[in-house]
Request: fold
Amino acid sequence: MSKILVIAEHLDGKLNSATARVVSAAAAVGGDAIDVLVLGDAPDAIAAEAAKIEGVSRVLTVTRAENAHMLAATAAPQIAKAAEGYSHVFGPSTTTGKDLMPRVAALLGVAQVSDVMTVESSHVFTRPIYAGNAIVTVEAPTDHTVVATIRSASWKAADNGDSAAPVEALTLDIELPAHTRFVELKQDKSDRPDLQSAPRVVSGGRGVGSKENFDIIYKLADKLNAAVGASRAAVDAGYVPNDMQVGQTGKIIAPELYMAFGISGAIQHLTGIKDAGTIVAINKDADAPIFEIADIGLVGDLFKIIPEIEAALG
Ligand SMILES: Cc1cc2nc3c(=O)[nH]c(=O)nc-3n(C[C@H](O)[C@H](O)[C@H](O)COP(=O)(O)OP(=O)(O)OC[C@H]3O[C@@H](n4cnc5c(N)ncnc54)[C@H](O)[C@@H]3O)c2cc1C
Reply:
């Protein structure tokens, strides 16, 4: 019978929505229990949020000063210890999860199943390969713990349930490595919605032409209350910071609406938006590959079309 431990991801005292997506994948495995593990120096508020997610059986908290900031080197041994008795340990395939979960897998002596898209049975999963051009079916051995990262874009976040699951404090009797320590977190502060979880994303590519010209993308995004993304060419040209990159080596996203301006539609970019609901492409080249996957395509100059869209929005 399956007993699944879901690793909560959080920052600044708030649970990341990726956690509820992982719970959905855990629910697809089914089984006896889905417990969420929250590591923190003051995890109670985060645990209370996690407890509300539908399908969660228990929330386990580990309170330690070392957990004030997420460090894979110190979190992994705690998770490996907490994983005793569980058949599965799931985390999100976010940047944090990709750093953390392979260490957990190594400590448990198993190979990680990465980027789970679907659950076929308790030990059989599908995942993308070749930048999402092929889907492979992976079978994990049934006599070992399954450690997996869950591809956030493939799963809807589990809703909040009617009642909260119990929260229990866990004490793990282990010494943590001291070779890695937190120094500083540098991150851009923005009032715009988070690119990875926003329902609407407006993206610009090389066609936008410059950092200054990107203002037109920000303005439209603000009008639509959308997050802003970019192609790698726009990032490499210095128009925008690299945490805005969408695609194979950027963020994999699944917004309800994705609007691409001046983006040609290279396969590495499309990999990041395959799961988007409606894709709108604006490009002056009628043969741009992005039109092959766009639900709505407009051939034209983005600098003419964006003001027209804004005017139509009122
Ligand atoms: C290993 C690897 C990983 C990669 N990872 C990523 C990734 O994660 N994300 C990513 O995006 N790319 C990635 N790339 C790069 C990718 O192959 C493309 O080079 C990149 O996506 C191109 O960006 P672009 O569409 O903005 O630029 P271009 O391909 O140069 O396209 C610009 C488009 O803008 C249009 N245009 C120009 N002016 C206007 C205008 N005024 N109005 C309307 N349209 C206009 C043009 O017609 C053109 O189609 C990766 C490549 C490799 C090899």
User: Anything to note?
Assistant: Residues 41 and 199 are 31 Å apart (CA to CA).
